[in-house]
Automatic annotation (TrEMBL):
Identification of the protein by name: UDP-N-acetylmuramyl-tripeptide synthetase
Cross-referenced InterPro entries: Mur-like_cat_sf, Mur_ligase_C, Mur_ligase_C_dom_sf, Mur_ligase_cen, Mur_ligase_N, MurE/MurF_N, UDP-N-AcMur-Glu-dNH2Pim_ligase
Domain annotation Mur ligase central: ranges: 147-355
PANTHER family (UniProt xref): MUR LIGASE FAMILY MEMBER (PTHR23135), UDP-N-ACETYLMURAMOYL-L-ALANYL-D-GLUTAMATE--2,6-DIAMINOPIMELATE LIGASE MURE HOMOLOG, CHLOROPLASTIC (PTHR23135:SF4)
Binding annotation for UDP-N-acetyl-alpha-D-muramoyl-L-alanyl-D-glutamate: 195-196, 222, 230
Chief localization: cytoplasm
N6-carboxylysine: modified positions: 262
Residues annotated as domain Mur ligase N-terminal catalytic: 61-127
PTM text: Carboxylation is probably crucial for Mg(2+) binding and, consequently, for the gamma-phosphate positioning of ATP.
Keyword terms of this UniProt record: ATP-binding, Cell cycle, Cell division, Cell shape, Cell wall biogenesis/degradation, Cytoplasm, Ligase, Magnesium, Nucleotide-binding, Peptidoglycan synthesis
Organism lineage string: Bacteria, Bacillati, Actinomycetota, Actinomycetes, Micrococcales
Pathways per UniProt: Cell wall biogenesis; peptidoglycan biosynthesis
Binding residue positions for ATP: 149-155
Amino acid sequence: MSGDAAALSIAQQDRVFRPHGVAGASVEELVAELTRTGYDPLVTPVGRAAGEIPLTGAAMDPKTVGPGDLFVAVAGSRAHGADFIATAMAAGAAAVLTDDAGADKIREIADYRIPVIQVTRVRDAAGPSAALIYGNSSTSGPALFGVTGTNGKTTTTYFLRSLLDAVLRRHGQSTGLIGTIEIAAGEATIPSKMTTPEAVQLHSLMALFRESGITAAAMEVSSHAISYQRTSGLFYNVAGFTNLTQDHLDLHGSMEKYFEAKAALFARSRTRSSVIIVDDAWGLRMADAATGHVVQLATSDEPAASADWVVTEVAAEPLGSSFTLMHRRTGETIRCRTGLPGRFNVSNAALAAVMVLTAQETAELRVPRQEVVSALEHADPFTISVPGRMQVIGTAPAAIVDFAHNPDAMIRTLEAAASTSQGKTILVIGAAGERDSAKRPLMGAIAVRMADHVIISDDDPHGEDPSQIRAGLLEGARAALDEEALDATLEEITPRLDAITRAVEVAEAEDTIILAGRGHEVHQDFAGTKHPIDDRIELARALRRRGFPTAPDAPVTAEAADAVSLSPSDSTAEGGHTA
Ligand SMILES: CC(=O)N[C@H]1[C@@H](OP(=O)(O)OP(=O)(O)OC[C@H]2O[C@@H](n3ccc(=O)[nH]c3=O)[C@H](O)[C@@H]2O)O[C@H](CO)[C@@H](O)[C@@H]1O[C@H](C)C(=O)N[C@@H](C)C(=O)N[C@H](CCC(=O)O)C(=O)O
Ligand SMILES: Nc1ncnc2c1ncn2[C@@H]1O[C@H](COP(=O)(O)OP(=O)(O)OP(=O)(O)O)[C@@H](O)[C@H]1O
């Protein structure tokens, strides 16, 4: 993150990341556009009289409204944006786009002193409205690469951006990134609030990217974003699908509905070319559901017959893997590698490679094909560190911080550990509160099946009782231990810092430690109170205290801070107990 940006509040960061030269649109032009596209807007008398007022930005969060903005006030589960109309007006909002309920609130609170444009589907209309204001169209650029799927979005977008950089930098062009960890416009970055921001911010980012000479950008597209219309009015040059496994059932209700949400991204109206990993039935169904130009990629050992590209000759390397991408019809082969551990990172890297190759084929990137192939074969674009994704902190024991927080990611991560570990696998795992509780027992069972020593601790409980969340994990773990006669050691230890200390305390040099679930995150949310903790820093500290070597890029901590910490023998988890 840029040092300067990190010091700013979220609202200030939003403003720093706004474009400067926005042509904008008048209230009248916006109303005409919404009428033309079938939103049937109603406009208050003040709004009709104020048709000339220029709109030069758009915001949904009242805290990020700036002078001249269209304030998009949506109804939500916690509040209605219109409840905060006074804040938005004080910040300089020029007009409001809202629904019936919002219009009523504005009449009550602000007596319609601001032009109100009323539509039924505010979230749907937000994207096209922002697109008009910021001057975005399906061809205005940058070339947009969207990645969706349960797991692998962040890693694949980092890979994509690294490859795009390797190809485009020599042409004097730079790239952008939008995802869970950060938003980047060339060298400038701000931390992310969401995996996929709201439509108003996305459109502002597209304009900022153009203004900053960014010609291609990689972005994560969460299923929440699709369901909440955050990507409305955006057009993807290439969209990629990683996989679909259980998660987020609290929002979608069923795997079918979860699939349908993701499938909406691969419609020709939103995406020109789709690259779909077809390693299982969900992938094959996604390739069927996609409209427009569809490219199928198989990354497993038993590739689907319909695949266009297949991954072959996977070879494990000391850290990471090398592999060949082969095009079935043309016979073209490209040798690639990734420095990130785990077979799943071969899939992520292959997806990034084929997405860029596809963009080149359809002339979305104005570069010769040989330059893309050469970057893949010689620039090693997939050997990068992705914060908190299979991030190696220690070497003996191998000590890894990973973001696995659903059943499939846990299986993949623990498989990767088993394939390289000479000794025991020690796992620290928790689960987030107020999110898909059905996955907790499954995760507990996977933990004791695949690790030798399992320490159940806390993740982000949010507003839920942390002991209830751990109980869900423990229930699955204990059932698997009993029913499958497993001999893994199971402990419940809180706080998480003690769980990390314990994991290192029981490790020997030949073992593998995995801290799962929190990745790059730097605080835990307990009912709105943020407790600072960074798994990467705490793991490095605990390893150094025991005299274990840390990886060259492990976080360095002040000696003084380490000296006051408990020694391993003192650190038996208070509040923890053997389950
Ligand atoms: C389930 C979900 O995605 N909810 C999002 C949705 O909430 P909502 O429709 O209920 O709206 P709301 O929070 O009541 O707010 C309505 C309006 O009032 C405003 N408001 C609301 C409360 C307040 O105190 N002040 C305030 O100004 C809001 O800015 C908004 O304009 O719209 C809100 C406004 O943008 C989001 O903040 C909120 O994200 C919540 C916080 C969230 O946790 N979202 C997560 C689950 C999410 O979206 N995650 C995915 C990644 C998932 C993954 O792959 O792991 C993501 O793309 O980030
Ligand atoms: N292709 C994949 N298949 C299965 N698991 C994966 C894959 N890629 C990564 N993982 C696992 O999922 C975790 C999250 O990876 P990543 O952050 O790249 O995915 P994501 O889709 O962005 O996740 P989220 O939406 O939760 O942020 C990793 O730490 C790893 O354990």
